Amino acid sequence: MADVMMDSGQGVSNGRDVTDLVLQDILAGVLLPGTWLKQIDLERRYSCTRPEVRRALDRLAQKRLVEHVPNRGYHVYEPDGRRAREVSEIRIILETAIVGTIIQNASRADITNLRGLAEQFDFMVLNGTMLELYEANLAFHRQLLILGGNQELVDLITEIRQRTSSAPVSQWRTRARVEQSGREHHLMVDAIEAADTERLKELVRKHILQG
């Protein structure tokens, strides 16, 4: 795994969340997969304190964007292509299996709530940080799964997703890709509102594969 020296004075926080600054550098390719993240280098790069760096790294580790190796430190998560493909296949099987139940359970209030979460994602595209965008995406998908009526399945899918890096964040390198994700959210809500099971299955499958 690579180690990287980071120039001091770049990316100064100016009150911004250090977590988002590190995430932005990961997405921009400044911090490549496998790069070891020395806390002293991050302190200098973002002009912040050691506790701020630790909080940022812990948050990103929880979201599977960096990995913590005991007694060694943190490095940018290195995605495993085979594992990612297999996890996507499992997710497609599980998430399309409950599409009919989602449509059956979705009340008018649920559809309105989902639409609001999709709009919150759109708002974050324009106004939020990458971390806020990530959280908005999780909120939409979690609510969608909850409508399947099986909390154990929600927890299982959440755990399975954590076996790979936090896609689609790693794919959100262009504005066009982020906006496409937002459109797909709205199309899923449209399919639920129209009670179109096959359409929703296809949208879920497409969304997972693109992620």
Number of domains: 2
In terms of structural class, how would the helical and strand content be classed?
A: mainly alpha
Based on the coordinates given, report the CATH architecture of the largest domain: Up-down Bundle
- Oligomer class: single chain
| Widest sheet: strand ordering | 1-3-2
Distance between the termini: 25 Å
* Anisotropy-based shape: elongated
What is the number of helices? 10
Strand content: under 5%
Low-confidence stretches are 1-13
Tell me the radius of gyration. Answer: 18 Å
Number of strands: 3
**Share in helix:** 55-70%
Keywords:
single chain, 211 residues, mainly alpha, Arc Repressor Mutant, subunit A, Four Helix Bundle (Hemerythrin (Met), subunit A), 2 domains, 3-stranded antiparallel sheet, 10 helices, disordered N terminus
Fold and architecture overview:
- This protein is mainly alpha-helical and 211 residues long.
- It folds into 2 domains: 18-76, Winged helix-like DNA-binding domain superfamily/Winged helix DNA-binding domain (Arc Repressor Mutant, subunit A, Orthogonal Bundle), CATH 1.10.10.10; 81-210, GntR ligand-binding domain-like (Four Helix Bundle (Hemerythrin (Met), subunit A)).
- Helix content is 64%, strand content 5%.
- It contains 10 helices and 3 strands.
- It has helices at residues 18-27, 39-46, 50-62, 81-97, 99-105, 108-127, 130-146, 151-161, 175-193, 197-210, and strands at 36-37, 66-69, 73-76.
- Strands 1-3-2 form a 3-stranded antiparallel sheet.
- The protein is elongated, with a radius of gyration of 18 Å.
- Residues 1-13 have low confidence and may be disordered.
